[in-house]
Automatic annotation (TrEMBL):
Domain Glutamate/phenylalanine/leucine/valine/L-tryptophan dehydrogenase C-terminal, residue spans: 194-481
Keyword Hydrolase appears in the UniProt entry: no
Species assigned in the record: Meridianimarinicoccus roseus
Domain of life: Bacteria
Family, similarity comment: Belongs to the Glu/Leu/Phe/Val dehydrogenases family.
Residues binding substrate: 77, 101, 370
Record-given protein name: Glutamate dehydrogenase
Residues the record marks as site: Important for catalysis: 155
Keyword GTP-binding: no
One Pfam family here: ELFV_dehydrog_N
Binding site for NAD(+): 201, 240
Gene Ontology biological-process entries: L-glutamate catabolic process
Length: 482
């Protein structure tokens, strides 16, 4: 590892190369043929599009990408990111991570990712709609948006609103496609979405941490003990993923969010920050500056390096790198963002004994619930409707029995209306989504953990995650025949 002696930043491999280095570390422990190894490593295709939109009296040209990493399963799946620094290397790295993420949580998709070089905050809503529709048109006419080929979702800088525009654009271009709604996930509930998708990635981060803390041996490896209750957490990025993770961990697990890092600086309070109040402040004023009741620091980096039990980077890639990794104090890092730790920094942390819960697992809640949404759209039936009917029938039998018992016991026991309602309720969509997500996060952790603890040559969860997912992708290719 190079050291920084003259104050200049250490140059590191690109995001794509960093993902490749992590991939290489795993395949070195596998018995894959060199040809298959290369097939799984490379990105199948990346489409670059430049399109013009007349806005504010002149034509503006935008550059966008859609990368398809692996089509061992179709459709391929992955978000669309809106940010100024989107580039081919980044979308290819993110598409590769999607391949391995989908394999790890067993959603039947290949990996893809897209991005548009744009600062979404620089445009009005109606302008963003025109830009998004044009981008969607460019991708859809090449089947890079298509329910059976390529299904995007939200990522940094995009959300439900953009997904609704994309779905509508696709529908207009494919008026006879009865499955058109399944061309994109992360749509609003009233435009073909599914309950629980908005918060799914943050919810998945919470479920991942809960599962980690169910294993005292793993918790001890991170130099911690006990449960999530009272753990001191620092979060970088209070956007979709960071906000929901922080909010749930604080309100449902009793964790203390002692630091929040945003674009314009950071907030710190050992007593724990009110996440909802901070989020409301950011919405109103566009940043964390001047938030009352907390120490404000202009230097977000200093808070990232502060002492805490759990660090949750939930913003950008490469934020923990060779320039700052020696100062990172957290013993447990959960990668809510994609690629927040560079390959070099990862090596340093591993040697130091820091436990990293890797991105491909930690933020897989989004794609898991996207899968439920896609299935819901294709089945054309509200998720949970059939199950609810069955549940209701089953519960009705119980209630009938209880009513008989009620009559038999007379004054000795009376069934309250509340009790009866509870039994009759059955499961609704949100409950099904949550339990499906929880089950997925638990199962995927078990599969990584088993590899981590059972093989001498596997020293960390990241390599374990890669071993599980590459093994599954390889099995698909072998079964399919190349
Ligand atoms: N949205 C999803 O469902 C989803 C799913 C899987 C992975 N991810 C990953 O999670 C990460 C965040 O995505 P998101 O959807 O929450 O994006 P988002 O745009 O909703 O939020 C990103 C947040 O990070 C903040 N931010 C930007 N630059 C920053 C900086 N330099 N320092 C501190 N904060 C900064 C932004 O102000 C914003 O609050 C990305 O890596 C993304 O790929 C998102």
């Amino acid at each position: 590892m190079t050291s920084m002696t003259d104050g200049t930043a250490i140059r590191e491999p690109s995001f794509r190369d960093s993902v490749n280095l992590m991939f290489n570390r795993a395949v070195a422990l596998m018995d894959l043929s060199p040809g298959l190894e290369e097939k799984i490593r490379v990105c199948n295709a990346t489409y670059t599009v430049r399109f013009g939109v007349r806005l504010r009296g002149q034509i503006h040209t935008f550059t966008g990408y859609r990368s398809v990493h692996s089509e061992h399963m179709e459709p391929v799946k992955g978000g669309i990111r809106y940010a100024m620094n989107v580039n081919q290397d980044e979308v290819e790295a993110l598409a590769a991570l999607m391949t391995f993420k989908c394999a790890l949580v067993e959603t039947p998709f290949g990996g893809s990712k897209g991005g548009l070089c744009i600062d979404p905050r620089a445009w009005e809503e109606h302008e963003l709609e025109r830009i998004t529709r044009r981008f969607a048109y460019e991708l859809a006419k090449r089947d890079l948006i298509n329910p059976s080929q390529n299904v995007p979702a939200p990522d940094m800088g995009t959300g439900e609103r953009e997904m609704a525009w994309i779905a509508d654009q696709y529908r207009r271009m494919n008026t006879t496609d009865i499955n058109a709604n399944a061309c994109v996930t992360g749509k609003p509930l009233h435009a073909g979405g599914i309950a629980g998708r908005v918060e799914a990635t943050g919810r998945g981060v919470q479920y991942a941490l809960r599962e980690f803390f169910r294993h005292p041996k793993d918790v001890a490896e991170a130099g911690l003990s006990g449960k999530l209750d009272g753990k001191r957490i620092i979060v970088q990025g209070l956007g979709n993923v960071g906000y929901h993770a922080a909010s749930f961990l604080r309100s449902e697990d009793g964790a203390k969010i002692i630091g929040i890092i945003e674009r314009d600086g950071a907030l710190y309070d050992e007593r724990g920050l009110d996440v909802e109040a901070v989020a409301a402040w950011i919405k109103k004023y566009g940043g964390v500056s001047d938030f009352p009741d907390a120490t404000h620091s202009k230097d977000g980096a200093a808070v990232l390096e502060s002492d805490c039990d759990i660090l949750i980077p939930a913003a950008l890639e490469g934020v923990i790198n060779l320039n700052n990794v020696t100062r990172i104090k957290a013993n447990l890092i959960i990668e809510a963002a994609n690629g927040p730790i560079t390959a070099g920094a990862d090596e340093y942390l591993r040697e130091k004994g820091v436990i990293v819960i890797p991105d491909m697992y930690a933020n897989a809640g989004g794609v898991t619930v996207s899968y439920f949404e896609w299935v819901k759209n294709l089945s054309h039936i509200r998720f949970g409707r059939m199950q609810r009917r069955q549940e209701e029938a089953r519960h009705q039998l119980v209630v009938d029995e209880l009513e008989r018992l009620d009559k038999y016991l007379g004054d000795a026991w009376t069934m309250t209306p509340d009790f009866k309602t509870k039994y009759l309720r059955g499961a609704d969509e949100l409950e099904l989504v949550r339990s499906g997500l929880d089950d997925t996060m638990r199962t995927a952790y078990q599969s990584m953990r088993e590899v981590w603890h059972s093989r001498e040559d596997v020293t960390d969860l990241r390599v374990a995650a890669y071993l599980v997912s590459i093994g599954r992708v390889a099995a698909s290719y072998r079964a399919m025949g190349l």
